[in-house]
Design brief:
Elements (H helix, E strand, L loop, with lengths): L16 H14 L3 H30 L8 H6 L4
Helix pairs in contact: 1-2
Length: 81
């Protein structure tokens, strides 16, 4: 678990009963608060979304010719470029 310092904001999240139950079980087993588990899940999901956005931007650059792609055969022949 990472300790957070600095500026934080509080929000309220309404969860379906089943989602709440699913969250409560592992939180209890790990001895963590539900707040910690929710924070970690949100942070991980945001990291995933940022990665998807980055991939979308790269794909757009490839499609318009600003970036190129090499095949796996070429990569394995000369992995250092």
């Amino acid at each position: 678990m990472t300790t957070r310092t600095g500026d934080t904001r509080q929000t309220t999240v309404r969860l379906p009963s089943e989602t709440y139950r699913r969250l409560m079980v592992p939180a209890d087993k790990m001895g963590r608060t539900m707040t910690d588990c929710i924070r970690e899940a949100v942070e991980e999901h945001l990291t995933d979304l940022e990665g998807i956005d980055q991939a979308d931007q790269t794909l757009a650059r490839i499609r318009c010719g600003e970036e190129s792609v090499i095949g796996s055969e070429a990569l394995w022949r000369d992995p250092h470029g």
